[in-house]
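Quick check before the chapter quiz. The format below is the same one you will see on the exam, so make sure you can read both the input and the output lines.
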Amino acid sequence: MDILPTLVSLAGGELPTDRHIDGRDIWPMLSGSGELESKPSVFYYYRQDQLQAIRFGKWKLYLPLAPVRASPNAAAKTPPRFYDLESDISESKNLANKNPDLVQEILELAAIAREDLGDEEQSDKGVRPAGLVDRAVPLVKP
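Here is the expected output.
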């Protein structure tokens, strides 16, 4: 989300450099004083700890996936499926074979996401551990 970069900018601070911040300062757009450079949005679809699909602008790529652990009799890997959501919202026409360069570009985004956020047993160097409180108690008045 773009909340952190926007609030840090408004407060006159600097973003942390020890981690990846994927948002950007959107104050110029909110205040009407400027416009933002347009770039395709990237959304990552995870199911539990498995990266399953990526939305890149108008495109959606379902990644080649290994069988789900709960169904060991499933086929090997599924082939990638690639759709133009502007012209095919029902995802009925797989365009993977007609757009190999774009499929490859999105697969490279998947590799970056997997390195940062993980994917099943793959590294997740950008994931912080869950916050835990020793001996947590409810904060309620008697």
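If your answer matched, good. The radius of gyration is 20 Å.
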